[in-house]
Amino acid sequence: MRLTVIGTGYLGATHAACMAELGHEVIGVDVDADKIAALSSGRIPFHEPGLEKLLGKHLASGRLRFTTSYEEAAAFGQVHFVCVGTPQSYRSDAADVRYVDAAFAELARHAAPDAILVGKSTVPVGTARRLADAHAVEVAWNPEFLREGFAVQDTLRPDRLVFGVESERAGALLREVYALVLAAGTPLVSVDFPTAELVKTAANAFLATKISFINAMAEVCEAAGGDIGKLAEAIGHDDRIGAKFLRAGVGFGGGCLPKDIRAFAHRAEELGVSLGFLREVDAINMRRRDRVVELTRELCGGSVMGARVSVLGAAFKPDSDDIRDSPALNVAARLQLDGADVTVHDPVAMDNARKAFPLLGYALSAEEAIRGADAVLHLTEWAQYGELDPVRLTGLARTPRLVDGRGTLDGARWTAAGWDFRAPGRPAHPHAAVIKER
Questions:
Q1: Over 90: is that where the pLDDT of 435 sits?
Q2: 18 is catalytic
Q3: What's the mean pLDDT when you consider all of the chain?
Q4: How far is residue 414's CA from residue 425's CA, in Å, rounded to a whole number?
Q5: Pairing mode, if any, of strands 401-404 and 64-67?
């Protein structure tokens, strides 16, 4: 089939390349000429494993190309995917849907009468109905469930597909688009517009709630002397709960989860439904950053003034260079404001971090960041940080103190190597070594 993808950011660029991989001819459209030029030359303006290779493959095959012309794109395909962003409004917690509205309006001006406009953006419930009523084209909604770092896999081998459609024809066209995915056994849930819009926001709300729940339990463990790691292990064996996303730490960030749960609660209130618990989910999440700052102060004798602090991680999660609402950089900036000399390392997000936080220090390696440190903070769970040798690093730090803000490091191993090791929700190791400043 011939498809168009409107918006070539993280979602759109991934969707366009993956649709070409599924055998379709695809045009990606964006109003940003620089972005289109980069994509047309095979470069993606963000880090996503496997995507650049896929992009190059299908630029070369001729299945994929990019343009700034809506008119060209509308004339090319019958199925048009809208993948533009819905950031949080500056005035409230509501989602800003102006880019979605503009994309649908522009497409509707040029699209053929038999075209179908498929929204993939995360929008407030009611958006699809409003757009369908406003434009003389058929609308469908096909929410995305991409995880940064796994976006190609999640597009080509998703755990489910959701089609919000109002006609058999729309459903049939989407089944044709995803024929190879469906043939591989991917479950399909066909629903109405409101349900399709709610699936993504409900999924994000549930995930955020689970993360904040275990972080709230970490607060209780700290107050009571319990161990959140063992508590999570025990409740994770209950198959009604499951072990995933039960690791306490500095909390979630990124460009989706925080703003999506705020927008969901806001929209529910507009509809007369209180989702006040999501406000507490958000508050718990933000408190976790406070706790990491407090732990760092405690390690440094009550104040970080003049202390050299090493922060391992800048991206909000591993396998990404996305620093939007990054807990790591939020903590780093707050410690700097408290008078600490902060040095950050991240395997791929350094350039983005420098642009957003130019006053922080940056190191080209974890070892360089740790050299001379009074405290080390592990705040993004990159695999390479888990492979660091605490014995060798003991000789690099001025005072070997470590806060594991992600709860993934072996505390006993670090303590045995001479580190004063702390992690949210976990007791200090009973055999902690006496720390001497170098």
A1: no
A2: no
A3: 94
A4: 17
A5: unpaired
Residues 264, 201: contact at Cβ < 8 Å? yes
Q: Is residue 408 a contact partner of residue 248, using CB atoms and an 8 Å limit?
A: no
Q: In what order do the strands lie in the sheet with 2-6?
A: 64-67, 25-29, 2-6, 79-82, 116-119, 138-141, 161-164, 188-191
180-188 average pLDDT score = 98
Using the predicted structure, report yes or no on whether residue 431 has a pLDDT greater than 90.
no
Confidence class of residue 430 from pLDDT cuts 50, 70 and 90? very low
| 2-190 against 192-438: fold identical | yes
**Token pair in block for residue 113:** 């009468």
Are residues 262 and 275 in contact, defined by beta-carbon separation less than 8 angstroms? no
Domain 192-438 has CATH 1.10.10.350: no
| 2-190: CATH topology | Rossmann fold (3.40.50)
Is the pLDDT reported for residue 432 higher than 80? Answer: no
CB atoms within 10 A of CB 111: 25
Q: Name the residue among 366, 364, 397, 396 with its Cα closest to residue 379.
A: 366
The sign of the torsion formed by the CA atoms of 39, 41, 42, 44 equals negative
The token pair at 132 is 């369908």
Question: pLDDT band at residue 429, thresholds of 50, 70 and 90?
Answer: low
Residues in Cβ contact with 239 at an 8 Å cutoff, skipping those fewer than 6 apart: none
Which amino acid makes up residue 37? A
Above pLDDT 70, what percent of the chain? 98
Tokens of 424: 């949210």
Query: Looking at 92-96, 192-196, 353-357, 428-432, which range is the least confident one?
Result: 428-432
Q: Is pLDDT at 428 greater than 90 in this prediction? A: no
Please state the rounded mean pLDDT for residues 203-211.
97
| Phi, psi dihedral angles at 25 (to 5 degrees) | -90, 130
Angle between helices 127-134 and 193-224 in degrees, nearest 10: 160
And the tokens for 417? 């190597």
Residue 91, C-beta contacts closer than 8 angstroms, at least 6 positions apart: none
- Say which DSSP state 136 is in: S
The domain segmentation of the chain, as residue ranges, is: 2-190, 192-438
The catalytic residue among 18, 221, 256, 300 is 256
Strand segments, DSSP code E, in 315-397 are: 341-345, 361-362, 375-378
Residues 119 and 144 sit within 8 Å (Cβ to Cβ)? no
Helix, strand, coil distribution of the chain in percent, nearest 5: 45, 15, 40
Nearest to 257 by CA among 320, 191, 207: 207
pLDDT score of 116: 96
